[in-house]
Design brief:
Blueprint (H helix, E strand, L loop, with lengths): L5 E12 L2 E12 L3 E5 L6 H8 L7 E6 L2 E2 L5 H6 L2 E3 L12 H13 L2 H6 L1 H17 L15 H13 L5 E5 L7 H14 L4 E5 L3 H7 L2 E6 L2 E6 L1 H5 L2 H7 L3
Parallel strand pairs: 3-8, 3-9, 6-7, 7-8
Antiparallel strand pairs: 1-2, 1-4, 4-5, 9-10
Helix pairs in contact: 3-5, 3-6, 5-6, 6-7
Length: 249
Amino acid sequence: AADAVPILVAEGLTKTFAGFTAVNNVNLSVRRGTIHALIGPNGAGKTTCFNLLTKFLTPSGGRILYKGEDITGLKPADVARLGLIRSFQISAVFPHLTALENVRVALQRQRGNSFDFWRSKSVLGVYDARAAELLEDVGLAEFIHTRAVELSYGRKRALEIATTLALDPEMMLLDEPMAGMGHEDIERITALIRRVAANRTVLMVEHNLSVVAELSDTITVLTRGQVLAEGDYATVSTNPAVQQAYMGD
Ligand code: ADP
């Protein structure tokens, strides 16, 4: 599905915190239809970069283009409306709602008609059918009536992805999707990301290098706020500068 057209481009992206440059003149180009990973040792600037791209932070310099449009000055909600969506943090999943209800709320948000939604039983039925479908897609078919708080950590992350998919993103940004996961969850979420990416673009920050190796078309390695290397896994993992950067991490 990958083609050469960039969907998300960062040019000279820079972020300074009180004189400390956390992200320093980063150029990044994510091709449409690919899975692109942002990696690097602790403190490399991955999270800052991610927050800049999703507009949770305002850059000190540079610009960000989404489908050719300059989104540097936009708010996260405006960027989301364009189809560039960051996966919800776990805290954004309503713990006491069931999986189905959580996805329904996301669908409601996407359609933006909350009043009709809560009023009409037939509308509710349509949303619930779609919500059930999305939950099945992420492997939560058996858990649609389970409250989020009762789901395992890995299944909560899957629910998070389902609520993100409900917003029908063209491009998904995943912040450490494997963080805190056990082996089985990692396998399940890896397969899920691959499926999700079949007709979408994915950019993820991820620490787990075997997951990165398995999923990524392109990897950008950051160190000290700068791009150290870029390419496929075979290319970057054999790069001596990358190996050096990871030593002592
Ligand atoms: P990574 O995600 O790669 O571990 P971060 O983007 O979290 O790296 O951090 C990069 C550098 O920027 C670190 O040295 C960190 O201490 C610093 N940093 C991040 N956020 C802030 C902040 N809000 N204020 C000051 N320094 C920050």
